[in-house]
Amino acid sequence: MERLCDLQGRRLIIACEPCHRRGLYDLDYLGHRFGPHACVYEVYIRLTQTCRYQHPVGVRRPNQYGRACRAQIELDQPSSAKLLPSRS
Ligand SMILES: [Zn+2]
To answer: For an engineered disulfide with 11, which of 3, 28, 69, 76 has Cβ 3.0 to 4.6 Å away?
Structure first.
């Protein structure tokens, strides 16, 4: 599992359709709050605790008899075009 310090980008986006939520989290802020080497999965679980269907911290798998939160993690990355050498 990736750690916060491995992520390329400036912001983490957490989007959950069943819960109708979408959150933007600054990676610098997350690094201060959880530590730069925090596991992304742990951070994800903690950030989605307010989700109606999320399972508790420390439980590895959602309860198979219940509904699970479907929150997705996305990265708000700088445009890849900036990484290409300029042709001018
Ligand atoms: Zn959710």
So the answer is: 76
